[in-house]
Amino acid sequence: MLSELKSLGETHLPRFYARACDLFDRKVARNPHSEVNLLPLLVNAGETACDIGANHGLFTFFLLRQNVRVLAFEPNPRLVRILRYRFPDAIRRGDLRLFDCALSDAEGQATLHVPKGFSPLATLDGALVTANVEMDTVAVPLRRLDAVVGEEVAFIKLDVEGHEARVLQGAAHLLRANLPSLLVEAEERHRPGAVASVEALLAPMGYVGLFFANGTPHPLSAFDTQRHQRRDALNAAGTKVLPGHTYINNFVFVARADAKARLAARWPDLGPGIGL
C-alpha cells in the first residue's frame, strides 16, 4: 500500500512528494543500523560524492546535510523531476549536480525497465524483468563515469539493481586515481555472483570489503549468500526485510588509509581485518 502511494506521489503529485521525502528519510536515519549513518565514516565535509542510482535522494539528502558536494545520477525521468523539486537550493548553489543518465561500461542508449509501483527496482537488465510484474520502459542515455566526472571523488554510493560490475568497469580510471570509499548494493537474486564480481574488480586496487549485520561490521570473507541473502527474508515484492529476519545487500569497500582509520577507530577489533 505504501509503495502504491509513493508511486502515485511520484507520478501525479511530484512537488508534494518531494517535500514528503524529507520526512521519510529522517525516519530512515532513526534506525541505528541504517547505512546512511555510516556516511560520516566514509566521507568528509567539503569532499565530493557520487550518488549513483539516486532514486528520490535518500543518500543525497544526508550527504548534503554533511556539507558534501554531490553528483547524483538517476535515469528515471520521474525521479529526476522529484530530485529537482526537492533540492533546488543545493542545485542553485552548485552543491548538487544532477545527471539524468544511466551509467555503465559503454556509451550509448539503453532501456530502463521500471516496475509499476516499485521505482527503486528499476533495472537496465531485461533478464531481471519478471513476467507477472507490469513494467514501464524508458529509453535513457548511457554514460561511463570516467567520461562524465573529471574531479576528485571521495565516496560513491552505488545502487543499480544488478548492473554494479559494469558501472565500476566504466569508472576504472576514477577508482584507481581517487580510491573513493564505496557503498555498493549487490544481490545474488539480481545477478548470480554479484558480490564476488564486485570484489574481484576492487581487490586488485587495494580495496577491502565489509558488510554490517545488526550494526556490527564483518569482513567480506564471512559473507554467505545462503545465510545472508535468503529470498524468504523479504516480502513478496522483494522490497522490505520481514520482521525477525536478516538480509544483507549493502557492502562497504575502502582502500584509503584515512577511511580505514575512521572505521578502525569506531570498531577497534576491525583494524587487523582492514589492514590497520
Structure report:
This protein has 276 residues and is α/β, with parallel strands linked by helices. The protein has a single domain (2-103, 144-274), classed as Rossmann fold (3-Layer(aba) Sandwich), CATH 3.40.50. Helices cover 34% and strands 21% of the residues. It has twelve helices and eleven strands. Strands 3-2-1-7-8-11-9-10 form an eight-stranded mixed beta sheet, sandwiched between helices. A hairpin with a 2-residue loop joins strand 9 and strand 10 (216-219). The longest helix is centred in the first third of the chain and has 16 residues, at 14-29. The protein starts with a helix and ends in a 10-residue tail after the last helix. The model has no long low-confidence stretch (mean pLDDT 91).
Provide the CATH topology: Rossmann fold
Largest sheet: 8 strands, mixed
Radius of gyration: 18 Å
Average pLDDT for all residues:
91
Overall shape: it is globular
User: CATH homologous superfamily name?
Assistant: Vaccinia Virus protein VP39
Overall SS class = alpha/beta
Distance between the termini: 47 Å
Low-confidence stretches: none
Briefly, what CATH class?
Answer: Alpha Beta
Please write the string of helix (H) and strand (E) elements: HHHEHEHHEEEEHEHHEHEEHEH
Number of β-strand runs: 11
By CATH, the architecture is named: 3-Layer(aba) Sandwich
In total, how many domains does the architecture comprise? 1
Oligomer: single chain
Beta-strand percent range: 15-25%
- The tally of helices reads 12
Strands ordered across the widest β-sheet? 3-2-1-7-8-11-9-10
